[in-house]
Amino acid sequence: MGGRVRVIAAGTLRGGSVEGGAELELDGGSYDNPAKKMAITGLAAKVRIAELRTLRSEPGQVATWEGGSVDQLAIGAGRVRFRLEENAAHIEEARVAVLGGELTVPRATVAFNASSYSLAASLTGAQLGAMLPLLPP
Fold this sequence. Notes:
Blueprint lengths: L1 E13 L2 E17 L4 E14 L4 E2 L3 E5 L1 E4 L2 E13 L2 E11 L2 E5 L2 E4 L10 E3 L3 H4 L6
Antiparallel strand pairs: 1-2, 2-3, 3-4, 3-5, 3-6, 5-7, 6-7, 7-8, 8-9, 8-10, 9-11
């Protein structure tokens, strides 16, 4: 993971418990995970943590990226609007350019400690020619 990060926080530490909030900004970020065959470039985010102790954010936090790949699938620019609460990211809406079209996820919850995820998505405007290399021979 790389990029420029800016953190502004204010809070109190009492009896081992943190109280307060923070704002995090990421610009020019990248993520590369060879084990999961995943790479993302051009990451940017601005996240306001309303409660540090539970990592709860306000709704409408936004993260964007310029492109990347997941296994053999190239992905284009994308945007996810979300909130953090209860050890999970609650996706309010996500969009990513893929296969010449757009993949959208209307709502989903992703627990940070889950080993697998399941969600509903729709793909519109995809190009059949872009899908053919992904199909088995």
